[in-house]
Every structure is written in C-alpha cells, then in structure tokens.
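Human: Here is a favour to ask of a fellow structure person. Comparing notes only helps if you start from a blank page. Give me a protein, with the fold worked out from its sequence. Please set it down just below, with no commentary around it:

Assistant:
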Amino acid sequence: MLSHDSIWHAIDALAERHHLSPSGLARRAGLDPTSFNKSKRQSADGRDRWPSTESISKILEATGATVDQFMALMQPGAGDNGLPERHGQAASIPLIGFAQAGAGGFFDDGGFPAGQGWDEVEFPVAPERRASVYALEIQGDSMLPLYRDGDVLIVDPSAQVRRGDRVVVKTREGEVMAKVLTRQTPRGIELLSLNPEHPNRTFEMTDVEWIARIIWASQ
C-alpha cells in the first residue's frame, strides 16, 4: 500500500543510491533544489504532502531508474539496489569496457562474461545473482545526457526484460549499445536512443547476440 512515508523513503533511498542528497537529486532532475526538503513534506497545517508525479517521473529519468526499482525502494528495509538489505552484501563483480564488450570472445551466448582476469568493482548483490551480474563502463559521449563517459552500468542478463527497461544490446556484428526497449516480439526489437542526436534502432532477433537489462547506474 502506498503511503507518504514509503514514497519519501524511496526518494531518499534513490538519492543515496546515486551518492546525492535529496536536494542534489532534485537539482539533477531539473527541479527546484528544495523540492524534496523535509519542510516540503508537510503542509503549513501539518498534513502530509505527496510529491508530484511529474517530480517522480523526472528523477526516474535523471537517474535511469525504472518504476519497478522505485517501487522496490518503498519496501521496508530496501537497500540502494532495490533489494532487502540482507541480500545486499557487497561482492566483487567483473568490470568491462564498452570496447571490450564489442570485441569477440568476451561473452557467452547468454550475455555473461566469459573467462577471467577482468577488472572488478564492488556492488551489493544477492548471493544467488553474483554469477550473472557484471558492470559495463561507459566510454565516449554517445549516451549523453543520461550516461556520461566513465559512468558504470550494472547489467543482469538473467533479469526479465520488459518494455520501458533500459537495456544493453549486442548485435552479431559486434555493436554494443545502451537503449530503452520500446517493443519486443519473437521476431525483433525496437530501441529508443538515450541520446537525441543518435537514431532509434530496430533489429531482427536473428541479428541480436544478446540483450541484458540495466539494473543500476553509478553516476
């Protein structure tokens, strides 16, 4: 059940997840920096206030979080990865650059890193998912304004992919891209570009090597 406390908690948790204060999160989303201040959470007569749906939409867009992830952060005890804290033990996961991701031999058919010797980063992840989750480091400016050079995307090829998810796709020609999945059928996928200067893409499934959901972004 939705409550004032749960929604404000999710906003605070989303800010912390991106190493921001609530004011910093509001500023990143293009909102008034005081939008999420404690003083704005109650009216002058002491009644609880709801954040606007527009402000929530803007912080999701600014952070790359999905509605499902935001809802998960409303749960009591939710950690900054959208999972209960008891499942959020830090673990070392492989860190791969986009250039490596596009080269041959680094992934198996399911989109999981193959081999050993990767750089690693720490990320809180459930023990049963450690073998599948890995990190991709953004290189270049093709994914601005959402993702910048040096940002790290946490990718889980085992996670269910749905319309509206931010995903990483690798084609059989070796092209790797981060896009928004707008449509998927047994025959193909349609992808929305994160950067308005780059075109949207459409692929037949026979041309796709793998597709994996972005579950977190360090920005």
Notes: The domain at 4-73 is CATH 1.10.260.40 (434 Repressor (Amino-terminal Domain)). The CA atoms of residues 102 and 175 lie 6 Å apart. The first strand starts at residue 90 and ends at 97.
